[in-house]
Design brief:
This protein is α+β, with helices and mostly antiparallel strands. It has eight helices and four strands, in the order βαβαββαααααα. Bound molecules: glutathione (GSH). The site of glutathione has 11 residues, from α1.
Length: 204
């Protein structure tokens, strides 16, 4: 299998972390976003949306980082990151959807304003967008912080896909000025994820 990624992409990172954590034999393929490789015909054949990550498994190409995480787990006998018991799996799914629909997209507002715009020379952060992003991330961070009170991991008693999925947008904690440092439960949990080899071996 091949996993197309870029180390600065938190969406790609949740897929590469999952592969590493599972010990899956995947070939990592670097896609140079700065050079526009993701908009070239060869890549667009894999993902017409022109985004990383993409997993290529024989003649099957899968996009969407959360779907890739689930697929990698489903291919791995005996794995524990994605529980098979009905309600335990539903709870992990709930957090994956929460992340995809709310958290990742709210962090993306601040990442765009503080990081990507500067990288692409698109001017200063827009104060209205920053204010909106900060409000969303603070509200969602508070919800996560309350949920994590007295817990080690987000779902159940063990590390799951929920932890890997939700930690990766936080890799932009400082550069995107994410207003979550005061959430002590979130910060302790993040420290546990950051202690994993799969975290240390991915990202920038
Ligand atoms: N919902 C997608 C989002 C993927 C995505 O936005 N990837 C970004 C990098 S973080 C990308 O490739 N952006 C390039 C572009 O849009 O031109 C997922 O979870 O995989």
């Amino acid at each position: 299998m091949r996993l197309y990624h870029h180390p600065m992409s938190s969406n790609a990172r949740r897929a590469t972390m999952t592969a590493l954590q599972l010990g899956t034999d995947v070939e990592l393929v670097f896609v140079d976003l700065a050079k526009g490789e993701h908009k070239k015909p060869d890549f667009l054949r894999l993902n017409p949306g022109g985004k990383v990550p993409v997993l290529e498994d024989g003649d099957f190409a899968l996009t969407e980082s959360h779907a890739i995480m689930q697929y990698l787990c489903d291919k791995t006998p005996g794995q524990t990151l994605y529980p098979t018991e009905l309600r335990a799996r539903a709870d992990v799914n709930r957090w994956l959807f929460w992340n995809a629909a709310h958290f990742q997209s709210s962090v993306a507002i601040l990442n765009w304003e503080h990081v990507v715009k500067r990288f692409l020379n698109l001017g200063d952060p827009d104060p209205a967008a920053v204010q909106k992003g900060e409000g969303l991330v603070r509200d969602l961070g508070k919800l996560l912080d309350d949920h994590l009170a007295g817990k080690t991991w987000i779902s159940g008693d063990a590390l799951t896909l929920a932890d890997l999925a939700i930690a990766t947008p936080l890799d932009a904690l400082d550069r995107a000025k994410l207003p979550v440092r005061d959430f002590t439960n979130v910060m302790s949990w993040l420290g546990r994820v950051q202690a994993l080899d799969a975290w240390k071996k991915t990202g920038m």
